[in-house]
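> forwarded from #structure-qc
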């Protein structure tokens, strides 16, 4: 059978490409070997945020002395709630797939020759191919995964029962989110990070990283930074040899969650045969229209390289579908990052330090959450918004930690994508009292002076 578009991989990037292509009149098939929704919906974004938000509800109750009750999490019921949400979202996706008459082929897609995909021994031909096969955890020599007590993040998060003592290797986004969740479930949590700080991620301000570290330690999470480690035993307990700046010690736990190391999934696809180039790590090279070195082949999501995020994957799928449907479309300049710790984090663009390293001058303007009235009514006054402004008064980056930070950052992303200047935002009024008024205040201070 012939299709205008065949998508290998039914995660969020592949789904977005399929739906947009179909909307633009193309005959489309998705090949998926496991479950529609991929990592994000089945094992990562959706389940993790569901569990973390549940934990945050309990924390909010416990920190509100005027609420005369106690609260604790029923782990089994919480997992059922999570599973119901996943199924509900997938049901909606199946409805959209059916609505647009997209064929769903179950199995592994193999490509040996240009223009052909083999699924379960049957050959399908295509005009355009979209590779959306994602990435997978990499078992590293110092942290060999065994599927039992040394596992990847999504295996840990979907375990029926969690042991008492959990060690997380890596203090990046996944490590911080999982530490938040596991500690809220009253587990003993340790983070081991090789770099001198948590969240050593491009665009994340050091002040955000320090605030996260302080918050986690206040809640009882033990954190090692600037620490080189390796697993020396995992028969029963998992034992790490850890070299800190001042000592060598052994750290033991019941479960080790390895949040570092991923690799692109391209097995079964002969990229050389279809003239698709990759980088040194095996990720497929794409331009800002999601096109590979072969004009008939697109790649979206994790398999197309950093950032490895569902946010990027979804948009890249839309861009690929647009261009396949002859609608000129490019990737945005700015992709925001959302981190769901006990205090949300929103990040977009560059930090002042990063800009200075590239010879770009700028200035920072910061507003603390405790200066915003709505933060007091929510009993969430910790955190801040910091923006970086260039010499031409355009916003070049923003970091926020605090209640609703993942929503506020989207508004700032909008302003940055449209190249708005601070003077343009000065004309805009946000409703009162809201958390997003923090944008109004940061603009006030950038141009005139504080109001709150």
């Amino acid at each position: 059978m012939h299709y205008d578009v065949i998508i290998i991989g039914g995660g969020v990037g592949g789904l977005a490409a399929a739906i947009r292509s179909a909307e633009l009149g193309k005959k489309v098939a998705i090949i998926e070997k496991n479950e529609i929704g991929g990592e994000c919906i089945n094992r990562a974004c959706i389940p993790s945020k569901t569990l973390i938000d549940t934990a945050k509800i309990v924390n909010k109750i416990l920190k509100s002395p005027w609420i005369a009750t106690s609260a604790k999490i029923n782990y089994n019921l919480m997992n059922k709630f999570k599973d119901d949400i996943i199924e509900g979202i997938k049901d909606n996706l199946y409805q959209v797939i059916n609505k647009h008459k997209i064929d769903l082929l179950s199995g592994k897609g193999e490509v040996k020759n240009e223009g052909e995909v083999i699924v379960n021994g049957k050959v399908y031909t295509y005009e355009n191919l979209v590779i959306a096969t994602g990435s997978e955890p990499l078992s590293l020599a110092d942290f060999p995964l065994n599927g039992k007590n040394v596992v990847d993040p999504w295996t840990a998060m979907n375990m029926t029962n969690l042991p008492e003592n959990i060690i997380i290797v890596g203090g990046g986004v996944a490590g911080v989110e999982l530490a938040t969740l596991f500690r809220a479930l009253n587990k003993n949590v340790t983070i081991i990070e090789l770099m001198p700080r948590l969240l050593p991620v491009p665009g994340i301000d050091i002040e955000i990283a320090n605030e996260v570290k302080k918050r986690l330690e206040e809640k009882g999470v033990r954190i090692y930074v600037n620490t080189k480690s390796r697993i020396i035993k995992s028969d029963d307990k998992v034992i790490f040899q850890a070299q800190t700046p001042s000592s060598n010690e052994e750290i033991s736990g019941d479960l080790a969650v390895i949040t570092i190391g991923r690799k692109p999934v391209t097995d079964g696809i002969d990229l050389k045969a279809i003239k698709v180039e990759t980088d040194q790590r095996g990720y497929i090279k794409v331009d800002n229209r999601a096109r590979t070195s072969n004009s008939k082949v697109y790649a979206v999501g994790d398999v197309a390289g950093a950032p490895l995020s569902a946010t990027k994957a979804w948009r890249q799928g839309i861009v690929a579908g647009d261009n396949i449907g002859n609608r000129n479309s490019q990737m945005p300049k700015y992709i925001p990052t959302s981190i769901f710790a006990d205090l949300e984090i929103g990040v977009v663009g560059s930090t002042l330090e990063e800009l200075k390293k590239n010879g770009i001058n700028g200035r920072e303007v910061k507003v603390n959450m405790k200066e915003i009235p709505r933060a007091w009514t929510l009993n969430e006054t910790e955190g801040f918004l910091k923006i970086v402004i260039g010499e031409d008064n355009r916003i070049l980056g923003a970091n926020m930690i605090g209640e609703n930070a993942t929503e506020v950052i989207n508004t700032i992303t909008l302003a940055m994508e449209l190249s708005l200047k601070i003077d343009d935002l000065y004309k805009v009024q946000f409703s009162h009292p809201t958390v997003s008024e923090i944008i109004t205040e940061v603009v006030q201070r950038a141009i005139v002076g504080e109001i709150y």
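QC bot note: The mean pLDDT is 94. The CA atoms of residues 125 and 194 lie 47 Å apart.
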